[in-house]
Amino acid sequence: WVCGYRQVDNFEIEGMKFRAFLNHPAGPKTVHFWAPLCKWGLVLAGLKEVKRPPHLISTSQSIALTTTGFIWARYCYVIIPRNYFLMSVNFFVGIVGGYQLVRKFRDDEKGRTPLPSSHGQSDQMPTLCKKKKK
């Protein structure tokens, strides 16, 4: 007893916090914890794609990541119990997809499309590999 209050060991308090974390409805004993943890792989893959040249970015894939990221982030805020971990990963999936879209659109505005136009200028398809001469 210290000044009328019982002195509580720090390990006991931390143990109670850890127990509360384990038994939370969105804690590590549920899929609501592990699914977002695995989904961070999408964010990491998107961040790795930042080094990729913009003309190689898939517009449809970036649109899909952006829209699903923000839609599911909103859904995670509305459901009970609120899963802030899932909401954060979906938000960042949307951010990464949106960033890739911006990069793609800026590159398209500059007109740097490496593939030739198929509007009759050339009937030959570009060769990707050089043939070896005998």
Keywords:
single chain, mainly alpha, 58% helix, elongated
Task: Explain what this protein looks like in three dimensions.
This protein is mostly helical and 134 residues long. Helix content is 58%, strand content 0%. The protein contains four helices and no strands. The chain has helices at 10-22, 31-48, 59-78, 84-110. α2 (31-48) packs parallel to α4 (84-110) and α3 (59-78) runs antiparallel to α4. The longest helix has 27 residues, at 84-110. The chain is elongated. The mean pLDDT is 78.
Biggest beta sheet attributes? none
What's the alpha carbon Rg, rounded to whole Å?
Answer: 25 Å
CA distance, first residue to last residue: 94 Å
Whole-number mean pLDDT: 78
Which strand-content bin applies to the residues? under 5%
Instruction: Sketch the topology as an H/E string, one letter per element.
Output: HHHH
User: Uncertain spans, ≥5 residues at pLDDT below 50?
Assistant: none
SSE class: mainly alpha
Number of helices: 4
Shape: elongated
Extended strand count: 0
What is the secondary structure topology, with strand pairs?
Elements: H1 10-22, H2 31-48, H3 59-78, H4 84-110
Helix pairs in contact: 2-4, 3-4
Summarize this structure briefly:
The protein has 134 residues and is an all-alpha fold.
